[in-house]
Design goal:
single chain, alpha+beta, seven-stranded antiparallel beta sheet, 11 helices, 12 strands
């Protein structure tokens, strides 16, 4: 049986404190779970909220950005687990009119739930303006006008928000409930996650740390993720919307415990062992599903990334020391969220500071490596 080395854990906390004290980010939160329990959490720095700046605390909530994808994805695992959904169902058979008005290649009719979850559906840049996020009818009308960029399953390309708007609508179509309410009642509450929100209520807005760019953002060539979009998550309306590809808010403890619920699931938990195994089985093809920038196999399961056994755990955001079965999903600001079923470890790191990608990569590598070293 493994245990946590408290000295190594202290070194990890000291490293995160150093990131803040060196003013690389305004605030940061780190939490470690192991063997079904939260074994440590620390919060450092100051949280910006409008014009005020206050010390951050363990109750401070941070935007998870794309680490949100795993939360919504696991909700879809539950639909699969309950027989409400099949991976090979076509999106057009679930969402009436999806892509029908967009024209272009008619292969959109072949896109399946599985392809949406693997980012191989072919619509990575389908637009959804933030002003539409809170209005389901407006979202549906926009999705009717989408079109594919390439043939489904022919390649991999990261769908920053578009795929998860489809998954959110699938949840609503299959359950008859707002996806945010359904996730709360059927996943987050049963897992005891009182500080993790897909759709931040107005009364919790004051707990949220405002996003701050600590370095001049680089120019963005296309895509959906650019500074104006990132800063939308400082608005109450966008926080309420619960953008399913990047808008959840949480503290690091609940992120770590979310993954504990998957690597050490309780007997009375909301998901069966079969659902977790299905959700964490790699579904991408190493020959054609490679990252366009790095050229490596993305090694994706159903919305989550697996560390893999090919020596590329660091490149996939896990640092060194995680087992091949470790899985999770990072966030655009360097948020870290993963669990390792072989060691029982889970990691949650959140911050409100945005830096250049190379700095985030180095920090992510270090935190993941130091976290893995805590298990002995």
């Amino acid at each position: 049986m493994t245990s946590i080395n408290q000295d190594k854990l202290s070194e990890l906390f000291d490293y995160v404190e150093g990131i803040v004290s060196e003013e690389k980010v305004p605030a940061a939160q780190i939490a470690i779970g192991h063997d079904g329990k939260l074994v440590g959490m620390r919060t450092f720095g100051k949280a910006h909220n409008g014009t005020s700046v206050e010390p951050a605390s363990d109750d401070t909530l941070f935007c998870m950005f794309s680490a949100t994808k795993a939360i919504v994805g696991v909700g879809v695992w539950k639909l699969l687990d309950e027989g409400l959904l099949d991976l090979d169902e076509r999106v057009v058979d679930i969402i009436p009119g999806w892509c029908a008005e967009g024209g272009g290649d008619a292969s959109y009719v072949d896109v399946t739930v599985r392809q949406v979850m693997l980012h191989t559906g072919g619509f990575p840049f389908a637009p959804m303006n933030p002003r539409l996020w809170e209005d389901r009818d407006a979202r549906l009308r926009r999705m009717m006008g989408w079109r594919l960029n390439w043939t489904p399953d022919s390649q991999f390309e990261y769908h920053a928000t578009s795929a998860h708007w489809v998954l959110a609508e699938i949840i609503q179509q299959k359950t008859g409930e707002d996806f945010r309410d359904w996730l709360r009642a059927n996943l987050l509450d049963p897992m005891g996650l009182d500080n993790l929100y897909v759709g931040l209520p107005n009364e919790e807005h004051d707990r949220a740390a405002g996003i701050v760019y600590t370095e001049e953002p680089l120019p963005v060539a296309g895509g959906e993720v650019f500074p104006q979009t990132i800063l939308h998550f400082n608005l109450a309306s966008q926080r309420r919307a619960g953008c399913p590809g990047g808008g959840a808010f949480a503290n690091a403890a609940d992120v770590a415990m979310f993954y504990q619920g998957l690597v050490k699931p309780a007997d009375d938990g909301p998901l069966s062992a079969n659902a977790i195994e299905l959700g964490t089985t790699v579904g991408t093809n190493p020959d054609r599903h490679v990252d366009l920038l790095s050229g490596i196999h993305v090694n994706r399961a159903l919305t989550v990334v697996l560390a893999g056994d090919d020596g590329l755990t660091a490149e996939r955001g896990f640092g060194r020391g995680a087992s091949p079965r470790a899985f999770g999903h990072a966030g655009a600001g360097g948020q870290i969220a993963w669990g390792d079923p072989e060691t029982g470890l889970s990691v949650g790191f959140l911050t409100n500071g945005f830096q250049q990608d190379e700095n985030v990569y180095a920090r992510t590598h270090t935190i993941g490596t130091m976290a893995a070293a805590c298990v002995e």
